[in-house]
Structures are given as C-alpha cells and as structure tokens.
From TrEMBL:
Keywords: NADP, Oxidoreductase
Family: Belongs to the nitroreductase family.
Name of the molecule in the record: NAD(P)H-dependent oxidoreductase
Pfam family, one: Nitroreductase
Keyword Ion transport on entry: no
Annotated Nitroreductase domain residues: 8-186
Amino acid sequence: MSNTVENLKWRYATKKFNSSKKISNEDFETLKKAIQLTASSYGLQPYKILNIEDKEIRKKLREVSWNQPQIEDASHMIVLANITDFGDELVDDYFENVIETRNVTKEDVEDYSNTIKSTIGQLSQEQKAQWTAKQAYIVVGNLLSAAAQLRIDACPMEGFQNEEYNKILDLNSKNLNAAVVVTLGYRSEEDDTQHYEKVRKPENQLFINF
C-alpha cells in the first residue's frame, strides 16, 4: 500500500515532456493491458482507445488543443473515444465474447443479456453518449495509476476542441466521440510544475462517515 501512495504522490499532470525520451514497447504494452483490464459498467467497454503516433496528425491536434505542447512532445498520445449511440449489438458482442471465453451456452447468458438490454436500451441517444463518456473516464484513472507505478508521466487533458478532434480523426463516421486525452512520457527537467506541492482536500473535508 505504501508504494501505491508514494507513486500517486509522485505523479502530477505533466506540462512539459522530454520529447527525446520514449516509452519502451514493453512498458507501453503494460499500459495497454491496464487499459484493457479496466472495469466498465456490465463489462461492455463502450469506447475505443486511439493511439496517435502520426506526427502530422498530432500537429493538427495540437492546433485544436490550445497549442498545448504535450500533444506533440509526449512519447505517446491516447485519445479515449466513447461510442455515441448503440443498440442491442453492443450487448450481443459482449456476450459472444462471454460465451467463447467462459465456454458457456447462449441459453446460459440469455436472461442476463436481456436484463442489460432492457436497462440501457431505454436510454435516449444523449443519455447513451453521456453514459459511455463516463465509462471512458474510468479508463483514465486506471491508466494514470498504472503509469505512476511504472514511473511514467502522464497528463489527462480536456483542453481540446472536441468537434475538431472528431473531424481530424474521422470519428463521427465511426459512431465515436473524442471524450478525453491522455499524453504519456517522461517529464522535462524544465517543467516547473513537478516541484509544486500537491494540493488536495484534507481527509476531514473529503470523507463522510455514516
């Protein structure tokens, strides 16, 4: 537990990355596994994870991210894109995976599948988009923690023009929406932010016991 706390104290929203220092393939595969294993409602994972490597695309994205240098300077850039609308196919795809992975029959999962469909099927399109975006944010928390354990710096980012991202990445045609960005890499020695004391509410203001 002490290592977990120390890692979380160590991390901060990195503003300047060392552009010459790259995350190893092995470490990035670990981060991908952490993303893949993140909890989601019903286990549906209603989002896609975009790994933006192309330098020209990242340059375009920086222009619609208030020119924040992390977009280009970070070793890796992840865009979490939530599914904006869905029908029964989202649940059907999940249970096909359940059947194959757990070696069960369609009849074994039919009741639970129908329960999920009836629950989320009554949501409006706007509610569906809001719900899937919330699921994408769960990934962010897990990714930041995993990166801190590897002593990899990260910056979660909402400071970007959402619709412009969707245009540049052609997300609208894929029924996706850019919900949040995480840049990953290693802090620059010139990033003064790393020396700031971490500011959090004290426990007696944050927690309520019943």
